[in-house]
Amino acid sequence: MNRLTKRTLLSTAIAVATFQAHGAGFQISEHSASGLGRAFAGEAAIADNAAVAVRNPAAMTMFDSAQVSSGLSFIQPDVNATVDSLNTTPGSAIPNTTSQHSDVAPDAIVPYAHYVDPINDKMSWGVSVFSNFGLSTEYPTDSAGAAIGGQTELVTINFAGSFAYKVSEQLSLGLGLNAIYADAELKRQAGGLNTSAPTAEIAYLAGDGWGFGWNVGGLWEFDENNRLGVGYRSKVDITLEGNYRGNSATGTVPGELELNLPDIFEFSGYHKLGSQWAVHYSAMRVGWSSFQELRATGSQCLSLSGQGVCLQKDEKWEDSWRYSIGTTYSLDSNWTLRAGYAIDESPVPDSHRTLSIPDTERHWYSLGATYDSGSNWSIDAGFAYLNGDDVKGTEVEPLSTTTSATYEFTAGGDAYIFALGANYNF
């Protein structure tokens, strides 16, 4: 199967959000429409549909019949960026290299599908297809910052199988195994470094590959109205194998890039207050410190970083936290309403913010609802508004052993997420 066919099939299966449209860094949280409606607060403890297997496989013991849950999220970002200045060192400011760009992040659709099936009153199993990570930014090919912004895309698909066992009336444990397919593409043009030919390509990197990981979880049920959940997802290293062309090689040459996906730890609580109200919350740590660099290598490459290095870019990200709180209101036997708020820390230190991933802290404001037919099916809907801060950054790009280009830029924006899902009990 050629690369174009693979990319077409992959785009049909799952599209990715942008840096302002999902979790910090390039994490994707859109695993369920009901979860979106509460800003994903309490996800490791609620278990209101089969999507819980992704966040905490132990909670699958709460199902007394098989359920399939599927849906999609439509993400509409409104992200703007400005290249404020471009200077060379040694040298001076390059004139006419200020660029203002709107909508540098394309719209995206993120689907999901989950299935949970209880074996007996103590054991359950499940399968899921979803995405945990992805990004897409598209700057015009003649942008002043095309050499550091350009076009960047990462798509991942996670295929998971899970098992849960109820140890006692209060304690359940779960385990999951994951196969993750990743596909990445990076394009860079000269931009302000060559004002006579700004669209000239200076780098192209494309590759795909598989990685494997695991996740575990625990659920403690104090009683039918109060429970705590914890989930841990392992770090996954993926070697993307593909092609490179650019200033570091003659023609198109084989290359590979190591992609380090972070581990994730989540603690959640759920508490029902009376017959209609419930509150829930989560604290999530994402181990972004594993993402220290983008380094593409190939035996036929020679760059400033040395023989065998096609592309080298320091990232130096740090671990980050996400905190969320939400509420659920049972209006009647058919309707359930939700609301939530979350704050998502950025893992990107100010000193290493880049135009291709100018990540920023964001605030989530969410609303949602479920309609239960009273028989075997229900419909979930969710909406979230993500507010991101405008941030300034400085990015230095080496041009030779003695010269470099320094870009000053400003980026930021908001995003709107709409989700619709359906659940069916067998």
Helix content bin = under 10%
The order of strands across the largest sheet is 1-3-4-6-7-8-9-12-13-16-17-18-19-21
- Give the radius of gyration: 23 Å
State the secondary-structure class.
mainly beta
What's the structural domain tally? 1
User: What is the C-level CATH assignment?
Assistant: Mainly Beta
User: Given the C-alpha coordinates, what overall shape results?
Assistant: elongated
In whole angstroms, the N-to-C terminal distance is: 37 Å
The name CATH uses for the topology is: Porin
How many helix segments? 3
- Please state the second-level CATH architecture: Beta Barrel
Helix-strand string: HHHEEEEEEEEEEEEEEEEEEEEE
Q: In percent terms, what proportion of residues is strand?
A: over 45%
CATH homologous superfamily - what is it? Outer membrane protein transport protein (OMPP1/FadL/TodX)
Low-confidence stretches: 1-23
Mean pLDDT: 87
Instruction: Summarize the biggest pleated sheet.
Output: 14 strands, antiparallel, barrel
What's the β-strand tally? Answer: 21
